[in-house]
Amino acid sequence: MQNDGTVVLRGVINPVTIAQFKLWATNPERYHRGNGVDGKYYATHDGKREYDVWWTTQPPKEMWVPVVVQLQDPITHLFGHKNWDIHVVDCITTRPSSNKIYAHIDTPYRFQEFSQIDECLGVQIIIPLDDFTLENGATAYLPGSSLEKIDYMDLELHREQYDMRLKTEGQQFLSKPGDVLMYDGRTLHSTMPNKSTEFRSALLINALKSDIIPRVQELDGNTDFVKK
Fold first, then answer.
1. Regarding beta strands 180-184 and 122-128, do their DSSP bridges make them parallel or antiparallel, or are they unpaired?
2. Is the model's pLDDT at 228 over the cut of 60?
3. How far apart are CA 24 and CA 185, in angstroms?
4. Which residues does 124 contact at the CB level (< 8 Å), separation at least 6?
């Protein structure tokens, strides 16, 4: 564990579990939303649309709860031992030749009322379902940027500058299926261009401080939330 708002773990999730999530990620019946090949973002899937990047519906709890149990201690460490719960679980897949870079911070800091709160309110977890390489656009992130209190509006106004920071100052999560990257949600990061000939998938898990989840779900009408 680092003191820069990030944690990297190697070989944590077993190959059988990874294969199950990979099937979920690439099954068209599980598509939920995404960035279409026409360059537009779509909040709902129409059953036939093609995407550069897409997110799935939530996998069954029996698939992802054991993964969370395995990762409980490092998640709690990042939260500073505050109470937390799982907010969203889905899979993301990026098409070959996708050129998108989109430097951003994660929930809940992308909502104004949480954007300048100086504590860890959210932890994002990325688990590759394929090899993450330089060629296929492994996630780039900037360790320590969680301490900068990056404002989401400044990100919107100066996205190209933040993209360039990731390219010049960041590092990419070069990894194998079953490795884990988790970080304070204030950490600047982005998927990178997929220059390979293969689709690239990952499991995403978003944990939030327990007492803010109801409010975040009021603010975000575009996600397949974990149901209680």
1. antiparallel
2. no
3. 25
4. 106, 182, 183, 185, 187, 189, 204, 205, 206, 207
Q: Could you tell me which residue, 115 or 92, shows the higher pLDDT?
A: 92
CA angle 114, 119, 125 (to 5 degrees): 85
Angstrom distance (rounded) from CA 166 to CA 189 = 7
Predicted pLDDT of residue 81: 86
Strand 171-172 and strand 41-42: the pairing is unpaired
Query: Can you say whether residue 176 is alpha, beta or left, with left for phi > 0 and alpha for psi between -120 and 50 degrees?
Result: beta
| More confident of the two residues 228 and 5 | 5
Q: Which amino acid is at 54?
A: W
* Contact between residue 192 and residue 137 where contact means Cβ atoms under 8 Å apart: yes
The neighbour count for residue 157, using CB atoms within 10 Å, is 11
Residue 62, pLDDT > 80, answer yes
**Looking up tokens 């960041």, which residue turns up?**
170
